[in-house]
Amino acid sequence: MTATTLDPKTALVVVDLQKGIVGLPTVHPAADIVANSATLADAFRAKGLPVVLVRVTGGAPGRTETPRHSGTPAADWAEIVSELGPREGDIVVTKQRWGAFYGTDLDLQLRRRGVTQVVVTGVATSIGVESTARCAYEHGYHVTVATDAVTDMDGDAHRNSVEKIFPRLGETDTTEAIVKLLG
Question: Which residues face 121 on adjacent strands?
Fold first, then answer.
């Protein structure tokens, strides 16, 4: 792992830490992921840097071999967990696909603010987080993933993303190290 660098205009992008998802069984406790993401969000806000809270309310219509969840979700399913906000000035993005860029105005929101780098956290490591990190990389952003602020329902998928995919998309580091870089 190389030393992580943060650009002066870096945004935090928190993926799918919402009431209907944080209760799912994950490899690392969701409470820890929420706490680390909240620590990062507070540090970014204190520096006047953008905090993006992403929530999912739909899914792609294509066929899959994995069964889809059926039934009606709880009324508060898509609400961002209270530990994160949203707070005044935060950007809230509602997505219908895995990644936070597809079909949303996230790229526009970041470019308007002069953002050149994103730090990504959230659930699930191999789905929403990885899709968002890949798309950020493809859009030309520097990407950092806070590895202790992501988790997945599948341990092997989580490890593959953290060990094999994220280092090819950018940098990885811990919440503590990223907060320290923010000064």
Answer: 14
Task: Kindly state the tokens that stand for 183.
Answer: 């000064």
Q: Render pLDDT for 64-108 as a digit per residue (tens, 0 to 9).
A: 577 666 667 778 889 999 999 999 999 999 999 999 999 999 999
3-class SS letters over the chain:
CCCCCCCCCEEEEEECCEHHHHCCCCCCCHHHHHHHHHHHHHHHHHCCCCEEEEEECCCCCCCCCCCCCCCCCCCCCCCECCCCCCCCCCEEEEECCCCCCCCCCHHHHHHHCCCCEEEEEEECHHHHHHHHHHHHHHCCCEEEEEEEEEECCCHHHHHHHHHHHHHHHCEEECHHHHHHHHC
User: Beta strand 171-173 with 142-151: parallel, antiparallel or unpaired?
Assistant: parallel
Tokens coding 91: 């950007």
Q: Of the candidates 168, 16, 9, which has an alpha carbon nearest to the alpha carbon of residue 96?
A: 16
pTM comes to 0.94
Residue 125, both tokens = 């490591």
Structure token pair of residue 97: 């696909």
Q: How far apart are CA 115 and CA 111, in angstroms?
A: 6
- CB neighbour list of residue 51: distance below 8 Å, 6 or more residues apart: 11, 12, 14, 41, 44, 45, 85, 87, 89, 90, 91
